[in-house]
Design brief:
Blueprint: E1 2-6, H1 23-33, E2 37-39, H2 46-52, E3 56-58, E4 61-64, E5 67-76, E6 82-87, H3 90-100, H4 119-128, E7 132-135, H5 145-148, H6 152-156, E8 165-167, H7 174-177, E9 187-189, E10 206-210, H8 216-224, E11 230-236, E12 248-249, H9 258-263, E13 274-275, H10 278-285, E14 300-302, H11 306-314, H12 321-334, H13 337-343, H14 353-364, E15 367-370, E16 379-382, H15 388-394
Parallel strand pairs: 1-2, 2-5, 8-9, 11-14
Antiparallel strand pairs: 1-10, 3-4, 4-5, 5-6, 6-7, 10-11, 12-13, 15-16
């Protein structure tokens, strides 16, 4: 069976998250997005874990209103590197909590705790608990493995052989990561890292796995790629839309080339700090000019959240009632956001013609990207109206998710 999974989110108990990040809302919104398996996030937080315990557990996953949850947490190590852990059971989450509590001042107050452990220690603890771990948003310039280390071994030491996945993050995709030779053996995860259940955050990136059921063991085999279980598709926003794609000032957001940044000693003309972008960091680490995809690497499908497309088409804010109304109408008609974006014939959907044209343009790739940087998200621009006729006549239908 094919399972769509978003394996990295945060609960209402993490800093800077929406109070609506509760289990019931997450279950409802995941179904609308077309996600069957969603992370709990923050599973070491005692109050959140107590809420999770109220759900029915089935072989390492927890079911609520037709959605399945798997225990996950994100941990910041002593070097500010973030790690994603996928945990097999409540008891193992409790074991990890007891191990890390003496080494953390925030484990009871923040769903994403800081711990006085390095990557080797965290990988060893995860391995001992039967959990999977790997670098979260591995290229992000502030809190990523490649922000502070030049290799997996530099972060995880001898435990690197037990690292089976790397999370790409919003500013990178397969074409970036597969330029780095040491990553060819790993599974790439594309997750939302959502801090709110808004429709442009939850499952803005997700994975599709071939599994024989929805449980922890099946997910583990899919990530490790054992017994025919495997990832068959990564889905995510174009990397240019990520807020750290190019090197840019964190104050005024002016973009710089790597050479310009070095000449200016990483200080913008406005006095702000120039933060190195993912594109430039990949160029530093790359072992090849072009990606070399290993045979096991699945396709990568670029999708933009439907609410962002609607907002762009009609010229209003993404979290407005107008956008939500159109989004709801499309979901009610076609079932899930994925169906609207990829599979459905939307020409007679009854919504604003500008929205229909925008979705068709995105399916055809007939858009212009303005890359993000310095903490500011990138921007997507539709082709002007003069190009609309040509776009319609030359567009080849985007592959359905069922084609992968």
């Amino acid at each position: 069976m094919l399972v769509n999974a978003d394996l990295h989110i945060h609960s209402k108990y993490s800093m800077a998250t929406s109070p609506k990040m509760d289990l019931s809302t997450l279950a409802t919104e995941s179904r609308k997005k077309g996600i069957q398996l969603v992370a709990t996030g923050d599973c070491l937080h005692p109050k959140w874990l107590a809420e999770i315990k109220n759900l029915k557990e089935e072989n390492g996953v927890f079911r609520l209103d037709g959605a399945y949850f798997v225990l996950t947490t994100e941990i910041e190590d002593i070097n500010q590197v973030h790690h994603l852990l996928i945990v097999p059971s409540i008891s193992k989450a409790e074991e990890l909590y007891e191990f890390m509590k003496p080494k953390s001042n925030s484990i009871d107050s923040d769903g994403r705790p800081n711990v006085r452990l390095n990557g080797v220690d965290i990988a060893q603890a995860a391995h001992d608990a039967g959990a999977l771990t790997g670098p979260a948003h591995a290229f992000t310039p502030w809190t990523a493995m490649y922000a502070y280390h030049n290799s997996l071994k530099g972060c995880y030491g001898d435990m690197a052989e037990h690292i089976y996945f790397i999370e790409l993050g919003l500013s990178a995709d397969t074409s970036y990561a597969d330029r780095i030779a040491e990553l060819h053996c790993l599974t790439f995860l594309t997750n939302s890292d959502a801090h709110s259940p808004y429709v442009n955050k939850l499952a803005r990136e997700f994975n599709r796995f071939e599994m024989e059921g929805i449980n922890f063991d099946e997910l583990k085999m899919a990530i490790i790629r054992e017994k025919g279980r495997k990832p068959v598709l990564n889905v995510g926003i174009p990397p240019e839309e990520g807020k750290y794609n190019e090197s840019a000032c964190i104050r005024c957001y002016k973009h710089y080339t790597l050479r310009e940044s070095i000449i200016k000693s990483w200080t913008c003309s406005c006095g702000g700090t120039i933060k190195k972008g993912v594109k430039d960091r990949v160029n530093e680490l790359a072992s090849s000019d072009k990606p070399k995809h290993p045979p096991h690497r699945p396709p990568y499908l670029h999708l933009i959240p439907l609410s962002e497309i609607i907002a762009m088409a009609v010229g209003i804010g993404v979290n407005t009632k107008g956008v939500q109304g159109i989004w709801n109408k499309l979901i009610e008609r076609y079932g899930t956001e994925v169906s609207v974006l990829v599979d459905a014939d939307i020409k007679n959907s009854g919504v604003d013609e500008r929205v229909i044209n925008a979705i068709i343009a995105l399916r055809c790739g007939k858009v212009k990207m303005h890359p993000g940087g310095g903490g500011q998200y990138g921007r997507i621009e539709l082709l002007d109206k003069a190009a609309d006729t040509e776009r319609r006549s030359n567009c080849e239908p985007q592959k359905s998710l069922f084609d992968f």
